[in-house]
């Protein structure tokens, strides 16, 4: 089916307390891996493309590959811009056919972040496309993160209310203890803070779906607790990338004389599928993407490989 907007699916996730996987893709193998597992699990899925992925694959290629994969799937697929850095980038992605946008103004001060986010939301809502924005800052690994700097960068509940009300965003990325690009799943989320953010938003009548960035470095049990407390979109990039690189490296080491690149890449794709399957398993999204009458045109990659 064609790409769908994230609005109704994130609201469903919020209502039914499950998480929708938002997986970063840079190439065809990742897109296929993610959509094939979504189909297998009958789960809604978000494929997200970062600024880096757009530079790598090109905006047209990135968009059209995800559209093609979505068209073959019977489950809802959303194409999301991850960490849009400015207004024009968001315009270009909207024009290209993205069904969900993000503006990351977390490097700006509060007032400038509000101003730019509101401008993007106004533009995007004119085309009925939702916008995610970030408040507080999910730090990067290597930022010299002490427990104190992470805590200082976290989302403040009262600021969240002001931000959501002033910008009219559709979902909010919260900083509650995760760190971008971590390989070890050791971080624990600040669940009491998450509860306070939700309570403050609900009291102000703007209880929108919340998003977790940097999930690759978070303990799965902590993610589960986060989902039970209002996290609806869970971003995973690093774990997929690491799994892919490791698997193709191992395959190449085993068969260095192999001339068929597909035989090296396929184990990488399958490793990504295993990771996506594992994440979707504890996000609770299995069976949540069933669309009556929708048919799948997805073929098993293994068969394609041997042709
Ligand atoms: Zn992020």
Q: What summary fits the major beta sheet?
A: 8 strands, parallel
CATH architecture: Alpha-Beta Barrel
Structural class: alpha/beta
CATH topology: TIM Barrel
Describe the structure.
The protein has 13 helices and 8 strands. Helix 2 links the parallel strand 1 and strand 2 (45-50). It has 307 residues and is α/β, with parallel strands linked by helices. It has one domain (7-300): Aldolase class I (TIM Barrel). It has helices spanning 7-16, 28-41, 51-57, 59-72, 87-96, 110-125, 147-152, 157-167, 191-203, 220-228, 238-254, 261-283, 301-306, and strands at 20-24, 45-50, 77-82, 101-103, 131-135, 171-174, 210-212, 231-236. Bound molecules: zinc ion.
Map the helices and strands:
Blueprint: H1 7-16, E1 20-24, H2 28-41, E2 45-50, H3 51-57, H4 59-72, E3 77-82, H5 87-96, E4 101-103, H6 110-125, E5 131-135, H7 147-152, H8 157-167, E6 171-174, H9 191-203, E7 210-212, H10 220-228, E8 231-236, H11 238-254, H12 261-283, H13 301-306
Parallel strand pairs: 1-2, 1-8, 2-3, 4-5, 5-6, 6-7, 7-8
Helix pairs in contact: 2-4, 2-12, 3-4, 5-6, 8-9, 11-12
Sum this structure up briefly.
The chain has 307 residues and is α/β, with parallel strands linked by helices. 51% of the residues lie in helices and 12% in strands. The chain has 13 helices and eight strands.
Q: Which short descriptors sum up this protein?
A:
307 residues, alpha/beta, globular, binds zinc ion
């Amino acid at each position: 089916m064609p790409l769908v907007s994230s609005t109704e699916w994130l609201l469903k996730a919020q209502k039914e307390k499950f998480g929708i996987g938002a997986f970063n893709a840079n190439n065809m193998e990742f897109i296929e891996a993610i959509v094939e597992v979504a189909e297998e699990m009958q789960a809604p899925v978000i494929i997200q493309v970062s600024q880096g992925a757009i530079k790598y694959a090109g905006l047209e290629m990135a968009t059209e590959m995800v559209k093609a994969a979505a068209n073959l799937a019977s489950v809802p697929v959303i194409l999301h811009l991850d960490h849009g850095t400015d207004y024009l980038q968001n315009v270009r992605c909207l024009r290209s056919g993205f069904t969900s946008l993000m503006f990351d103004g977390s490097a700006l001060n509060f007032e400038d972040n509000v101003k730019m986010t509101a401008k993007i939301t106004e533009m995007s809502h004119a085309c009925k496309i939702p916008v995610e924005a970030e408040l507080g800052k999910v730090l990067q690994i290597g930022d010299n993160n002490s427990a104190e700097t992470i805590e200082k960068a976290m989302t403040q509940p009262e600021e969240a209310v002001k931000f959501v009300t002033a910008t009219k965003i559709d979902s909010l990325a919260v900083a509650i203890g995760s760190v971008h690009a971590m390989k070890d799943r050791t971080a624990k989320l600040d669940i009491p803070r998450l509860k306070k953010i939700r309570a403050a938003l609900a009291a102000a009548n703007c209880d929108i779906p919340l998003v977790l960035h940097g999930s690759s470095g978070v303990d799965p049990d902590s993610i589960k607790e986060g989902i039970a407390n209002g996290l609806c979109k869970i971003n995973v990039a690093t774990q997929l990338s690491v799994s892919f690189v490791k698997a193709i490296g191992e395959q190449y080491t085993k068969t260095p004389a192999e001339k068929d690149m597909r035989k090296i890449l396929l184990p990488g794709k399958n490793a990504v599928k295993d990771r996506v399957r594992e994440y979707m398993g504890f996000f609770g999204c299995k069976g949540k993407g069933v669309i009556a009458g929708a048919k799948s045109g997805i073929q098993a990659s293994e068969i394609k490989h041997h042709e």
